[in-house]
Amino acid sequence: MTDPIQRQIDPDDEAALLDSIDRWIERDVRPVVMYHDHNDIWPAELVAQMAEMGLFGATIGQEYGGLGLPATTYAKIITRISSYWMALTGIVNSHLIMAAAVERFGTEAQKTKWLSQFASGAIRGGLALTEPDAGTDLQGIRTTAVRDGDDYVINGTKTWISNGIQGSCFALLVKTDPKAEPRYKGMSFFLAPKGDGFSVGKKFDKLGYKAIDSAELVFDNYRIPAENLIGEVEGQGFFQATGGLELGRINVAARGVGLAEGALRLSTEYAQIRKTMGKPIAQHQAIQLKLGEMVTRTEAARLLVAQAAQAYDRGERCDMEAGMAKFFASEAALSNAEEGMRIFGGYSYSKEYEIERFYRDAPLMCIGEGTNEMQRMIIAKQWLKRNPA
Ligand SMILES: Cc1cc2nc3c(=O)[nH]c(=O)nc-3n(C[C@H](O)[C@H](O)[C@H](O)COP(=O)(O)OP(=O)(O)OC[C@H]3O[C@@H](n4cnc5c(N)ncnc54)[C@H](O)[C@@H]3O)c2cc1C
């Protein structure tokens, strides 16, 4: 398998970039989060601004028009945005995993054709892996691609696909040999732009992660040229899709840190304003115990994400590090959101306060990019491999 792409950034350049992200969040994002979240409205203006800032090419190489950022810097950007509005990062994240699959495993012709359009945001999309009967068990997918001359004909249904409505191109995992054993050998990965035979099914109405579209994608005799097969070799799809998940897990972990940090920030502010028994609740030991745990979890999660991202940037295999970061940071997000609800008391239940959004958004981090049940098993397997008896 191709190694992850190694990248570095000058510390001053990173600081300037993060500063511009902070200013954008303060000026343009914070004022509109509640409106978009409560009304489930796709944030067209923010998406245009993200494209202008180059975020749709954040991890794409500069030779293809991207910013060429290392995973460490990208994770910091994602954490900052997520500490105010996690869902917004979903519009960029799976798009960049699609791009990473092309950059790591695509042919030169595929990189030249697609990457600059992905980087500018002219073509945006995501990752289409999950099916109604196959999420964790990816090798059980049923969507098929059958070769027909210079084309493939694709039939099947994908579900829960982020950016499914607003995106126009998806990295699509299919079976080119449904009878292959082991099953992963029959899997291939395509770049699938919307067109005849490719339609959007239902849009999901969700608990949280509002404003970003999650939809079903239906392929009915959808025909694409063979040149859209990533790497132009059949049978590599499972490795190409799961290879990208290392970066995906670092992404989700960075979002988890952001959620944990945001819930902590809101709780810290509120605990110093809200008074009971004649003093701010932050002065009560019961609340201090919560804040002490929340800040520790947040910082531990941040360090695990940095460790995983640094390993990725060095081009090392980092499924164990990315798994630990994803598992711990997403659980930290969930715990901090719940503790935040308790700190806000009855007001946590009002949509006038932001903490309830964190409580609705956090559980997704424990499910996406491999559930936390699977993460623990991946971590243990790697751990045992690295520590033979
Ligand atoms: C908002 C949202 C956005 C999403 N975006 C995308 C996207 O853009 N692209 C995409 O392809 N998918 C996407 N997904 C799908 C997501 O990746 C899957 O939901 C996830 O992989 C889990 O699969 P599942 O829902 O089928 O659960 P299942 O696989 O049915 O798992 C159910 C439970 O069983 C456990 N379990 C399953 N197998 C095992 C095992 N072998 N050992 C132990 N425990 C096990 C799981 O951990 C889980 O607790 C999204 C989902 C959501 C909710």
TrEMBL record:
<keyword id="KW-0285">Flavoprotein</keyword>
<feature type="domain" description="Acyl-CoA dehydrogenase/oxidase N-terminal">
    <location>
        <begin position="12"/>
        <end position="121"/>
    </location>
</feature>
<protein>
    <submittedName>
        <fullName>Acyl-CoA dehydrogenase</fullName>
    </submittedName>
</protein>
<dbReference type="InterPro" id="IPR009100">
    <property type="entry name" value="AcylCoA_DH/oxidase_NM_dom_sf"/>
</dbReference>
<dbReference type="InterPro" id="IPR009075">
    <property type="entry name" value="AcylCo_DH/oxidase_C"/>
</dbReference>
<keyword id="KW-0560">Oxidoreductase</keyword>
<dbReference type="InterPro" id="IPR006089">
    <property type="entry name" value="Acyl-CoA_DH_CS"/>
</dbReference>
<dbReference type="Pfam" id="PF02770">
    <property type="entry name" value="Acyl-CoA_dh_M"/>
</dbReference>
<feature type="domain" description="Acyl-CoA oxidase/dehydrogenase middle">
    <location>
        <begin position="127"/>
        <end position="221"/>
    </location>
</feature>
<dbReference type="GO" id="GO:0050660">
    <property type="term" value="F:flavin adenine dinucleotide binding"/>
</dbReference>
<comment type="similarity">
    <text>Belongs to the acyl-CoA dehydrogenase family.</text>
</comment>
<dbReference type="InterPro" id="IPR036250">
    <property type="entry name" value="AcylCo_DH-like_C"/>
</dbReference>
<dbReference type="Pfam" id="PF02771">
    <property type="entry name" value="Acyl-CoA_dh_N"/>
</dbReference>
<dbReference type="InterPro" id="IPR046373">
    <property type="entry name" value="Acyl-CoA_Oxase/DH_mid-dom_sf"/>
</dbReference>
<dbReference type="InterPro" id="IPR006091">
    <property type="entry name" value="Acyl-CoA_Oxase/DH_mid-dom"/>
</dbReference>
<keyword id="KW-0274">FAD</keyword>
<dbReference type="InterPro" id="IPR013786">
    <property type="entry name" value="AcylCoA_DH/ox_N"/>
</dbReference>
<dbReference type="Pfam" id="PF00441">
    <property type="entry name" value="Acyl-CoA_dh_1"/>
</dbReference>
<feature type="domain" description="Acyl-CoA dehydrogenase/oxidase C-terminal">
    <location>
        <begin position="235"/>
        <end position="382"/>
    </location>
</feature>
<dbReference type="GO" id="GO:0003995">
    <property type="term" value="F:acyl-CoA dehydrogenase activity"/>
</dbReference>
<dbReference type="InterPro" id="IPR037069">
    <property type="entry name" value="AcylCoA_DH/ox_N_sf"/>
</dbReference>
